[in-house]
Amino acid sequence: MARKGGMDKVKGKAKEVTGKVTGNREQEMEGKVEQARGEAKQAAEKVRDRASKARPSVPRDPS
Fold it and tell me: Which one of 11, 13, 32, 55 has the lowest number of neighbouring Cβ atoms within 10 Å?
């Protein structure tokens, strides 16, 4: 299963490359920003996954 943010990274890379080829610096920078957004989403998901696995299962005190 693809991680969240993967599509942002792919679209961002495409925009970056297109911007470089066409000489459009604004599009190139938008692509880099989109890639960074995708990487941030993936990092956040990784932290959430690790936090949920690290949470100890402590039984509640019934009294």
Answer: 55
